[in-house]
Amino acid sequence: MENISKTLDINQIKQYLPHRYPMLLVDRVLTWESGKTITAIKNVTANEEFFNGHFPNKPVMPGVLMVEAMAQTAAILSFLTMGQKPDENTIVYFVGIDNVRFKRPVGPGDQLKMDVEILRVARGIWKYKAVATVDGQLAVEAELMCTLRTANDEAKAAPTASPETPVGE
């Protein structure tokens, strides 16, 4: 079932992601097309907890958090594509991250714009191409692979990734 509105505000995003502060890294969905693409933003502020130690004199958003923000964006697209919202037993696991390239630092005041495209879905593995930019300049790009599991699935078969690597955990 496709949503008529192609934007999501923070309250709607929280219906699709279990993450909460400080790990919720998507502030708004600008547009999406079921089964294809999504564009979302993360407003990077000086108040981000990680800037206290990364780095005190030259604040830089950690690359792993930029990748996590893209993965959260991908998870939203997957749920929108399936026409369902996750429940408390749903977990999205990383199963692979390929061809990651960091092209520019991201800091306070920047707006990270994330464009994610579904490349394919096979045997429960979703593969995406993800690109994040700041002011039109490439900041990071990667191919992400994730799988969706429920607590019941965990008892039957573990995902390729270890249980310690769910998206956002």
CATH topology: Thiol Ester Dehydrase, Chain A
Mean pLDDT: 90
Q: How many β-strands, per DSSP?
A: 6
Find the CATH superfamily: Hotdog Thioesterase
The number of domains is 1
User: What does the main sheet amount to?
Assistant: 6 strands, antiparallel
SS class: alpha+beta
**Poorly predicted sequence stretches spanning 5 or more consecutive residues:** 161-169
Summed up, the helix count is 3
Mind telling me the CATH class?
Alpha Beta
Helix amount, in percent? 10-25%
Shape: globular
Any key phrases for this structure?
169 residues; alpha+beta; Thiol Ester Dehydrase, Chain A; 6-stranded antiparallel beta sheet; 3 helices; 37% strand; disordered C terminus
TL;DR of this structure?
The chain is about 20% helix and about 35% strand.
Present the secondary structure layout:
Layout: H1 10-16, E1 28-33, E2 37-43, H2 63-82, E3 90-102, E4 111-122, E5 125-134, E6 137-150, H3 151-156
Antiparallel strand pairs: 1-2, 2-4, 3-6, 4-5, 5-6
What does this structure look like?
The structure is a single chain. With about 170 residues, the protein is of the alpha+beta class. The chain has one domain: Hotdog Thioesterase (Thiol Ester Dehydrase, Chain A). The chain is built from 3 helices and 6 strands. A 6-stranded antiparallel β-sheet has the order 1-2-4-5-6-3. The protein is globular and about 45 Å long. It starts with 9 loop residues before the first helix and ends in a 13-residue tail after the last helix. Mean pLDDT is about 90; it is low at about 160-169. Belongs to the thioester dehydratase family. FabZ subfamily. This is 3-hydroxyacyl-[acyl-carrier-protein] dehydratase FabZ. It is an enzyme of class 4 (lyase).
